[in-house]
Design brief:
Blueprint lengths: L23 E4 L5 H12 L15 E6 L29 H11 L5 E6 L6 H18 L4 E9 L16 E8 L2 E6 L1 H5 L2 H9 L12 E5 L3 E6 L3 E6 L5 E9 L5 H15 L1 H4 L14 H33 L18 E4 L4 E6 L2 E6 L2 E6 L3 H8 L4 E2 H8 L5 H14 L2 E3 L2 H8 L7
Antiparallel strand pairs: 1-8, 2-3, 3-4, 4-10, 5-8, 5-10, 6-7, 6-9, 11-15, 11-16, 12-13, 13-14
Helix pairs in contact: 6-8, 10-11
Bound molecules: fe (ii) ion.
The site of fe (ii) ion has 3 residues, from loops.
């Protein structure tokens, strides 16, 4: 059932067959110019001197210029040491007005702004990006961590110059305002030509002598540029006009086994040390260490780790499959669930499995644990039918405390796996839904 899913983005010819990976321009609408401008201003609000957003630390802002001569305010590549003074603010009103202010401030030098983690500023924006990535991942499997980055400016080339992003799988860039050009060198072509690779990596900003080997793709508002992740690339503005883009890069792997292993070892040592290393197995200082003690200790430790690691890897996969590996914002704290609200879930975003005596519930990448008896509630939600909050609570409150159910529903709503639906949408669905308690 899909009645409550947001509609997919209008993306034409969205043939993300990974066997035919070549740079191309597709049509796709992600956001209006006004929307993107508002999100960028929000991301730049309360940013510290180094460009980190104080409220949302996963948002990072970089500002660069392409100076004619060495300028102490910028690093060699043109990145501002302290971007805060150059950032867009509400009083700038629009991209055009901000560009004018910057050009005055910078004595006419062209500039660029890069915002990492932009999806974290707005719940609805994050949902749109997620819908787009669902299309990709339903064809290609969950195999990548999406990084959502906004680019803005009138630069003739980005400060980083030509480069290849490490381990990037695929890159999509939505052109929202102005025009944008990407210059690309194919990965296999660069790999096969050491002189070309040397030239690009040693002089990333002075890449035009190597333009003979490049192709360019240009995008207008409402278009989507695609290039394979291993391609060397550089972004260029066209005609000195400012532009705004949103880029979605897919970077495998999202599953970091080393971190999971470290956490599992830590947990086993801290919490189950008595089981792994029983006192009576401890060697005596004068007796040496016998093989049976080593064998016994290893066997116990590996057994405990095995279980612990299995649980952590399973949780990681559930988190990845419900969040698509992307960090999500929470709904606004003002948007609370009320008893009379009509709700429905998206089963793609809500999964659960037994975890010992508890139930592991994963909602859009957030793992929660609750009583195993909540399985019935989760089963009801995962039917994607419409429910009235207080009726759903009453239906399951026979076995569980109503308060615990309300808290769980609130968390699922806040993370985004259940949403409020309007009464008229609910009517048609509720008639086919289960009987109310
Ligand atoms: Fe890049």
């Amino acid at each position: 059932m899909s009645h409550n899913r947001t509609s997919k983005l209008p993306v034409d010819d969205f043939a993300l067959d990974r066997a035919s990976r070549y740079p191309r321009v597709l049509r796709a609408h992600l956001a209006s110019e006004e929307e993107l401008w508002g999100w960028i201003v929000a991301a730049c609000r309360n940013v510290d001197e180094r460009g980190r957003n104080r409220d949302i630390p996963d948002i990072k802002v970089r500002f660069f210029v392409c100076p004619e001569a060495r300028d102490a305010r910028y690093e060699g590549a043109g990145l501002a040491h302290a971007p805060a003074e150059f950032l867009p603010r509400e009083s700038d009103v629009s991209l055009a007005a901000y560009t004018e202010r910057m050009m005055r401030l910078l004595d006419g030098q062209r500039f660029g702004l890069v915002v990492n983690g932009l999806q974290l500023v707005d719940f609805a924006f994050c949902e749109r990006v997620r819908d787009f990535i669902f299309d990709y991942q339903s064809l290609n499997g969950i195999r990548a961590t999406p990084a959502v980055i906004a680019f803005l400016g009138n630069y003739d080339r980005t400060a980083f110059g030509a480069h290849a992003d490490q381990q990037c799988a695929d890159v999509f860039q939505f052109v929202i305002s102005g025009r944008k050009r990407m210059r690309l060198w194919s990965g296999p072509q660069v790999e096969a030509n050491p002189a070309l690779e040397r030239a690009l990596s040693q002089r990333p900003s002075d890449y035009m002598p190597e333009s003979w080997a490049s192709v360019t793709i240009d995008g207008n508002p409402g278009e989507l540029l695609y290039w394979p992740g291993e391609a060397w690339h550089v972004g260029e503005a066209i005609d000195e006009e400012p532009h705004m883009c949103v880029s979605v890069s897919l970077v495998p792997p999202f599953l970091t086994l080393d971190a999971l292993l470290e956490a599992a070892v830590d947990h086993v040592l801290r919490n189950t040390i008595a089981v792994c290393f029983p006192q009576d197995a401890a060697p005596h200082p004068v007796g040496g260490i016998s093989d049976p003690i080593v064998d016994e200790t290893c066997a116990r430790a590996i057994g405990a780790l095995d279980e612990e690691l299995y649980a952590r890897v399973r949780q990681q996969w559930l988190c990845a499959s419900t969040s698509l590996g992307m960090k999500h914002p929470r709904r606004s704290p003002d948007d609370v669930l009320r008893a009379g609200d009509c709700i429905s879930s998206d089963s793609r975003l809500l999964q659960c499995c037994p975890d010992g005596s508890e139930l592991l519930v994963v909602s859009v990448g957030v793992a929660l644990r609750c009583s195993a008896g909540m399985k019935g509630l989760l089963d009801d939600l995962r039917t994607e039918r419409a429910w009235i909050v207080d009726e759903l609570v009453a239906r399951h409150a026979v076995e569980h405390e109503a308060k615990a159910i309300e808290v769980l529903l609130d968390e699922l709503h806040s993370t985004g796996s259940i949403r409020k639906i309007t009464a008229d949408r609910a009517d048609g669905v509720a008639s086919t839904g289960p009987k109310r308690a």
